[in-house]
Amino acid sequence: MPANPSSPHDAYFRRVLSVPANAASEIRDTIPEPLIGRIDWDCMELQPVSFVSDQLDSRFSDILYRTRLDGHPAYIYLLVEHQSRSDRFMALRIMEYLVNVWNQHRHQHPDQDTLPAVLPLVVHSNGTGRRWNAPTELSELIDLDPAARAALAPYLPRLRFLLDDVAALDLPALLARDLTPATRVMLALHKIAPRNTDPRSDILKLIDDLRVLASGPDGIAELQVVMTYILLVGDFAEADFDLLIDRLGPRAKEALMTTAERLRAEGRIEGRDEGRDEGLVEGAARVLTRLLTVKFGALPPATIHTIRTSQLTQIETWTTRVLTAATLDEIFA
């Protein structure tokens, strides 16, 4: 039985950004420059909580760090949005999550009579290239005409979250960012592994960062994380890693063999390398392509590629959405 297609995104994001140095590189590269020197990056402490409900954990992942800002207690809340369709009510969700952070802090520190600063950062990361197009400030969601908005301005909630729209970046721009190798590889693979028309070529562009990961004290474990994600979300067989392994050496080969054996034992990749009924998949892909073309007109090449390289269960899910979806985004959300 294939894994939940969103679970690898969640697991990979958490695995990488639960390391303070990786999270710090993502935060520093996103927040306004005047804030960078005010945050104590050396005392970032991961908090063992999640405020995302079970109903939403296939769409969002969250991580909370405690640190200090100008010497005062503060938190940094990271939320990643995996889906291609922007969540219009993300600002409201962020408000709910921040209230949870503050309530938790009050429970842990009942003697304090002030609330700590919380810096919320949303990372929009997926392989579609669709930009974030939802409000980033809570007041924008409130239905008011301009005159009433001006009159009520002092009383409207002004919460605004920081947005890192990774989905809108092309690969060269992403690779040029000042991030740790693990963070850069993770965000790049979110973009290229699931739906790229030439993922093998693009993954080779990560070779310098992958060499750094492979050469570290936990190099094999780091490569296993990378290869687990690629095998679960991309249309890859083990043979597709040959060129990458040639460049990275024996550690990469050991990581691939161990990862593939484990995933086969768990029944998570047998549909990719063996037992996959190509006829059924190709037939289902043709039917879905025909239905979408009739309903929405000519399809983008990337959409056709996504359909052709997906698993049967995923194609069947998309096909059922044709009946009710009004846009392509709703099909593939």
From TrEMBL:
Residues 7-203 form the Transposase (putative) YhgA-like domain. Transmembrane segments: none annotated. It comes from the Bacteria. It holds the Pfam family Transposase_31. InterPro entries: Rpn/YhgA-like_nuclease, Transposase_31. PANTHER family: INACTIVE RECOMBINATION-PROMOTING NUCLEASE-LIKE PROTEIN RPNE-RELATED, PTHR34611. This is Rpn family recombination-promoting nuclease/putative transposase.
